[in-house]
Design a protein that fits this description.
Keywords: Membrane, Transmembrane, Transmembrane helix, Transport. InterPro entries: MetI-like (IPR000515), MetI-like_sf (IPR035906). This protein is mainly α. Helices cover 72% and strands 1% of the residues. The chain has helices at 9-16, 22-48, 54-62, 68-77, 86-98, 113-148, 157-166, 169-183, 203-239, 243-250, 255-267, 269-280, 287-292, 298-307, 311-339, 341-347, and strands at 104-105, 111-112. α8 (169-183) crosses α9, α12 (269-280) runs antiparallel to α15 (311-339) and α14 (298-307) runs antiparallel to α15. The longest helix is centred in the middle third of the chain and has 37 residues, at 203-239.
Length: 348
């Protein structure tokens, strides 16, 4: 039994066991289902509110080489037949969606949307995902240490990292390309790997992927770490004034245990929600970064789909993004319940 919890409600909860908060779970499930339905519905109607569509853009690019019958067939194929009422298109869209059919992408040579997303998604997850996790872990740990040693020399890192966070991603990326790629030649300037390299689980290809992703990862980490450092430091300053920290120190606990077991554990809770949202938006990628480094991720794919008015591909990417954000929020709720016993008591 933790000596700092003796006589508290947490002790009673620990002795009696943790009750499963079914009402909370059902309420959360209903909320997330409603959110998913609303997001998918908006995902269907929003592209159709734009001027023109994918078939119009495709016919314009063909410069009159396709007969009118081809346009009618394409509209029927992509679910954009203007003779079909919008509500019928909406229910047809749900029917295809429930069967796992995301449609065909007109901007990728009539390839299935799922296949187009699957080819780009791993690159974004590997690039932006690794960068986000590194920046969160390093920024949170650094912010906790700076907050614990407030008034020390490490405080000078806060304005430095905050300033780097105000520099736009693309500008920082261009500077790094000029310095570390063009002048020093340490890293490749762009793309995911060199042309002609055999793809697969071989040493040469893996080395190419790591070397090409290093500079974008460094850019994202440096540009985003300031927010994590500042947020964790400010929360640490608030938590260190709490009574339970004073009690723990008065009982003679080692400073490392007080820092990581009590102070940092409570200070990190607000960071969890931000981190969950950041993980969810990883799927969306960083469009500007992928453009600067010519990286074949989901963000660059979304930009191409938007320019081509490729409804099916846009809807597929947005659907994956929505589901990723919802899953990230569910994981954040679970993390809250694990890290903060008070959450479990209240919900139970």
């Amino acid at each position: 039994m933790d000596p700092t919890l003796v006589g508290t409600t947490a002790t009673v909860a620990e002795r009696g066991g943790i009750r499963v908060p079914w009402r909370f779970i059902v309420g959360r499930a209903a909320f997330y289902l409603f959110t998913a339905w609303a997001a998918i519905t908006i995902n269907f109607f929003l592209p159709r509110m734009m001027k023109g569509d994918a078939v119009d853009a495709y016919m314009a690019r063909s410069q009159g080489q396709l007969p009118p019958e081809a346009e009618k067939a394409l509209r029927a194929l992509f679910g954009l037949d203007k003779s079909v009422p919008l509500w019928q298109q909406y229910f047809d869209y749900w029917g295809r969606l429930l069967h796992g059919d995301l449609g065909l992408s007109i901007s990728t040579g009539m390839a299935p949307v799922g296949q187009a997303i699957a080819s780009a998604l791993p690159w974004t997850l590997g690039l932006v995902g690794v960068a986000t996790i590194i920046s969160f872990l390093v920024g949170t740990v650094l912010g906790a240490v700076i907050g614990w040693r407030r008034g020390g020399r490490l405080d000078a890192l806060v304005p430095v990292t905050t300033f780097m966070g105000t520099v736009p991603y693309f500008w920082l990326g261009l500077i790094f390309i000029a310095v570390f790629s063009t002048i020093m030649g340490w890293f490749p300037a762009g793309h995911a790997y060199e042309v002609g390299v055999e793809t697969g689980w071989n040493t040469e290809f893996i080395g190419q992927v790591i070397s090409h992703a290093a500079l974008p990862v460094i850019t994202i980490v440096i540009a985003s770490i300031g927010g994590w450092v500042l947020g964790m430091r400010n929360m640490m300053l608030t938590v260190l004034d709490e009574d339970y920290i004073t009690v723990a120190q008065a009982k003679g606990m080692p400073n490392k245990r007080v820092l990581w077991r009590y102070a940092a554990r409570n200070a990190v809770l607000p960071q969890i929600q931000s981190f969950a949202l950041a993980l969810g938006f990883i799927v969306g990628g960083t469009i500007v970064m992928e453009m600067v480094f010519s990286y074949p991720g989901i963000g660059l794919l979304l930009l191409s789909a938007t320019n081509a008015k490729d409804y099916a591909l846009m809807q597929g990417i947005f659907l994956v993004l929505v589901l990723a954000v919802l899953v990230a929020n569910i994981l954040a709720d679970i993390a809250y319940a694990i890290l903060d016993p008070r959450t479990r008591q209240t919900e139970a």
